[in-house]
Design brief:
Blueprint (H helix, E strand, L loop, with lengths): L1 H6 L1 H20 L8 H22 L4 H20 L5 H14 L2 H4 L8 H13 L4 E5 L5 H6 L5 E6 L2 H14 L3 E4 L12 E4 L6 H11 L5 E5 L10 E4 L7 E6 L5
The chain binds S-adenosylmethionine (SAM).
S-adenosylmethionine binds next to helix 8 and strand 2.
Length: 257
């Protein structure tokens, strides 16, 4: 069951709200005669959010789902209370979502991020191989790029979602770490890299391997976070001990398959 919720967190988040609702109703019902309407609604919404977030934590959902679970009832409650909301916040929210996720429907690769533990393992891997060039295909906010750049290593990332690219570019500029380019990973030159890293989805893996195995130089390495290349045996699979139980699939280039 926990595995199902970890794979489809929205189900766990919905369950958390449903379970929290009667508890909050039971706790706040006795207060109706003594507490005024608005403070009581505020207490109920805060309790609902906190309890739902706690349940999401118990279900071991990724951390941002705890925040979503906490904010969801507060946002819904506030919208209902305020009533007659202007249309522009919804338009703005739509625009932001479009700028972040516009590429998801085409490429079937959503935005989720490599965690710090995995980035640290990747850094060790590069040190061990004395690798100096790394490219993150679909670099998201550029966390891996920033983590791996430095100590003689040159890390680059390519990203095609407009808002995500801008955020990654900004973060690289203010930290002075790494190089972020706006572009399509399928059109990116990978021939000079010692390591190419990708954390995408199952959908593009076969085609991606087709590109990398023909375009990367012999002796280089492709590392895929979580998603294996179908019908190709990785040289190694590293199972990390982070909370997500990340698996890294290592594919050396130029080895007979
Ligand atoms: C799962 S996220 C991983 C982000 C980052 N690599 C990390 O590990 O933190 C995948 C990213 O790939 C980007 N992406 C998907 N298709 C792409 C494409 N064709 N070209 C460039 N980026 C792409 C998405 O916008 C998203 O930011």
């Amino acid at each position: 069951m926990l595995v199902l919720f970890r794979k489809t967190p929205i189900l766990g988040a919905l369950l958390a709200q449903v379970v929290a609702l009667p508890v909050v109703a039971a706790v706040t019902a006795p207060l109706t005669s003594s507490v005024e309407r608005l403070p009581l609604i505020a207490i109920a919404l805060l309790l609902q959010g906190a309890l739902a977030a706690l349940i999401c934590g118990l279900l071991k959902l990724p951390r941002w789902w705890l925040l979503i679970a906490f904010l969801f009832p507060i946002a819904m409650g506030s919208a209902l209370l305020v009533g007659n909301l202007p249309a522009w916040p919804f338009g703005l929210a739509f625009l932001v979502l479009a700028l972040v996720f516009s590429n998801t429907t085409r490429g079937r690769v959503p935005l989720y991020l490599t965690n710090a533990e995995t980035a640290s393992v990747l850094k060790d891997l590069m040190r061990d191989r004395s690798a100096t060039r790394v490219l993150d295909l679909g670099c998201g906010l550029g966390g891996v790029v920033r983590a791996l750049n430095g100590e003689g290593r040159k890390a680059r990332g390519v990203e095609n979602a407009p808002a995500v690219y801008l955020a990654a570019r900004f973060l690289a500029a203010v930290t002075g770490r790494g190089e972020i380019r706006r572009g399509d990973l399928w059109k990116t030159d990978v021939s000079q890299e010692d390591v190419v890293y990708a954390f995408l989805s199952p959908a593009p893996m076969a085609a991606l391997w087709q590109k990398l195995s023909t375009e990367m130089k012999p002796g280089s390495l492709f590392v895929s976070n979580s998603f294996a290349v179908p019908d190709v045996d990785p040289d190694e699979i590293w199972e990390l001990s982070d909370s997500r139980k990340t698996r890294l699939f290592l594919y050396p280039i130029g080895k007979a398959e």
